[in-house]
């Protein structure tokens, strides 16, 4: 019964924390540094760095090179959509299965 792909459980565990959703949403719009994210969100830069480490470990964010004209030289991060697309496809499959089951139950109840 426990044949859930590891990637799904890993992604869900990483996304189970609200701040990580906020980080991922922000990075979906533009590449940002940990300092940029700490200024935009109500958490410390150290906490942002830990959240980024978790998101990076499951493939949801990647580091990019510092912007050449940047004087800070800080590493920037960007969101990676492919893992979320795979998760969405799996959830869609599960949803279709439940829809079929519920339709069958409804049909039985109405007959």
TrEMBL record:
Q: Where is the HTH arsR-type domain?
A: 1-94
For molecular function, the Gene Ontology terms on record are: DNA-binding transcription factor activity
Q: Which InterPro entries match?
A: ArsR-like_HTH, HTH_ArsR_DNA-bd_dom, WH-like_DNA-bd_sf, WH_DNA-bd_sf
Which is an annotated Pfam family here? HTH_20
Under which name does UniProt file this protein? Winged helix-turn-helix transcriptional regulator
List the top taxonomic levels of the source.
Answer: Bacteria, Bacillati, Actinomycetota, Actinomycetes, Micrococcales
């Amino acid at each position: 019964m426990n044949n859930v792909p590891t990637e799904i459980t890993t992604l869900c565990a990483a996304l189970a924390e609200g701040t990580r959703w906020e980080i991922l949403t922000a990075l979906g719009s533009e590449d940002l540094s940990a300092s940029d994210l700490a200024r935009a969100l109500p958490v410390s830069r150290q906490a942002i760095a830990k959240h980024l480490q978790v998101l990076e470990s499951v493939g949801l964010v990647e580091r990019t090179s510092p912007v050449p004209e940047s004087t800070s030289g800080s590493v920037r991060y960007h969101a990676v959509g492919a893992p979320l697309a795979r998760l969405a496809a799996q959830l869609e499959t599960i949803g279709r299965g439940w829809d079929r089951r519920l339709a069958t139950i409804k049909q039985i109840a109405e007959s």
